[in-house]
Amino acid sequence: MTLRLDVLLAILGMAAATYLCRAGGYALFRALRPPRVVEVALQHLPGPIFVAYVAPALAAQGLKGLVAALAVVVAQAVSRNLAVAIAAGVAVMWAAGMVV
Amino acid sequence: MSGPAVTFTRAGLLRGARQAAPLVIGTFPFGLVVGVISDAKGLSLLETLLMSALVFAGSSQLLALELWTEPAPIAAATLAAFVVNIRLAPMGAALAPWLDRLRGVRLWGSLATLVDHSYALSAADQRRGGRDAAFLLGVGVALWTFWMIAVGVGHVFGSAVRLPPGHPLYFAATATFCAILVPIWQGVRRDMLPWTLAGIVALLAWGAGLGPPWPLLAGALCGAALGAWLELRRG
Hints:
The complex is a heterodimer of chains A (100) and B (235).
Chain A: H1 5-31, H2 36-44, H3 46-61, H4 63-79, H5 82-99
Helix pairs in contact in A: 3-4, 4-5
Chain B: H1 10-40, H2 45-55, H3 58-66, H4 74-85, H5 89-94, H6 96-99, H7 104-112, H8 116-127, H9 134-161, H10 171-184, H11 188-207, H12 214-234
């Protein structure tokens, strides 16, 4: 049950940044109407965030990562169940590890 | 603002908690993944639970953990949390018909539990004519409770099994983000070009040797900017 200072500071930094988004966002948007381009850009942010994370992570895995990602997307689209989708991706990676 | 008064009751709180129950099935595996990855990155159970309790935003936690180094990357983790969670900023404003009627700890406490799911359920309840602002807190507290359980179970499992580095199970983190993309996708016209640009920019930054969180930041901001530009140009 350790609690290291560097980890605690990182957690507190994340917590502060997140609360700023939750509460500061409400306060700020109420106080001053932001320009429409900001609002629209925020609506567009989630997709690019996760694509920008996933692209290098998959590139580092090579072909098997790409196949596994495809399996995840198909499984999620068909089942609409996060657990099924994650399991499909892990299963492909596991199978690829057996083959190679 | 006119119309019937907004209330904040125990009944509203419980109704929110009950409506959150089906969502737990969807968020539980996510919490398990966060717990397993936290353990793999060397966080103790206490550190893991503290992060989950205070941050309580799964994708930002998972993303920060993916960038994790020894010693902890204080600035990078903070920045990652901000970028991933800035999407929550307009949600509070959208719930203004309720939140504007709250004061003090009820207002700022309710906002502390705001997540995508509690926003979505509350916005729907508001459209149906819901007047009880405690509904938002009820959903949030229920999701928070099960989030803590899921992350804790994941961490205990991870430290019991002691997976070697490179184990296929660690792909679960990347898989989670691939899966999250599916419901976010709103069609070729809106998302194809921005998402493609985000991926290309991230790959270029990564290929150029830039460390985290820069490929993520560059890709995300370029993609969102292009998406906004295209949408406003279409009018």
